[in-house]
Amino acid sequence: MSETAQLRVDGQRLWDSIMAIGEIGPGEQGGSCRLALTDEDCEGRNLFIRWCEEIGCSIRIDDMGNIFARRAGRSNDLAPVVAGSHLDTQPHGGKFDGIYGVLAALEALRTLHDNNVTTEAPVEAVVWTNEEGSRFAPAMIASGVYAGLFEKDYAWAITDSDGKSLGDELKRIGYMGDMTCGSNPIGALLEAHIEQGPILETENRQIGVVIGGQGQRWFDLTLKGQDSHAGSTPMPGRRDALVAAAEIISMVKLLALEYAPYGVGTVGQMSVMPNSRNTIPGEVFLTVDIRNPDDAVLAEMTQKFKVCVTDCVNELGVECDIEEIWHCPPVKFDTTCIAAVEHAAQTLGYSNQRIVSGAGHDACQVCQVAPTSMIFVPCAGGLSHNEQESAEPEDLEAGCNVLLHAMLALANS
Ligand code: GLV
Ligand code: MN
Ligand code: MN
Fold it and tell me: Is 284 helix (H, G, I), strand (E, B) or coil?
């Protein structure tokens, strides 16, 4: 038996750290609101760095604001085994989505530190910038730049709804680092995360061994009709952009149902102009998110979606501009990393099963350039992107132990 086989993380310390970060940017109903590159995000990052420095890690920050905290190994020329996720949240976010993966990585490093364990390759905890895509769309932007999927200039220029750019906000909070994003090699990346769906809870399994992620396509739609008086404009001949939006919303739902159970479709954001109760809305902006684990089926869904939108707006005398702002194809994770996670779960005696992620994750970007896998733990009712999001401390601890032992196996192999 190896000398590290008995190592276990401190589940209480992991839980306390998650709760401590959750206090930064508290939500109104028990969750968190820490949108990317806000002052709250900055405060969360600062706390993470302080914790990493307390255990002797060295910190590097790249020019997309990704933070890498390194615990040196015996052979520091080897590419590190990296674990982590994101600290930004949705506007009504929970305390666990992303945060768990970052603090599980920290807890693994703390456990190595407490036990004076040095790995062969260095090990690192990472925080990726703007995973959620809520303030700056698309999602997973900084891991996407790391993986060469987005140009950095494009990422820096993305603006939020107030017109502030991602690059300026990175500088403002002091997280435009001096390392070139993507220049630091990753030997392997592991990301622990709550499942954000109901499968593990339903199947009564403690660990999901994640073998890949489903594909997603994001669209911005601008509908242009005509502002007109709500009282004196006859119903025939109106060019009501909001009526068109309403039809598109139900059409997206029907389209997803046609591809059940794997197809999903969501309109999550909308703005109405001029947004006055007695003016027929002349312009509407809305977002559409369509997902499927099979890229060919996702393409078919996209094609049907575009045809339906065109038919609908033509009938209503409304013009529509559809811009596809993001296509993230389905991904398959690395067999060696999957095996490391599965072996750790089995050796530790945790019930487990293989699973495909419904949500997007930084690991789904980085897997293009480095071997990658993920570890899922159940969350109550499969609920996420909701302040009520919750997970059991024992499950979080189990996932963290799997992470620790998978990291050890990869870093010492
Ligand atoms: C990330 O949270 C996603 O939208 O899947
Ligand atoms: Mn997440
Ligand atoms: Mn999320």
Answer: strand
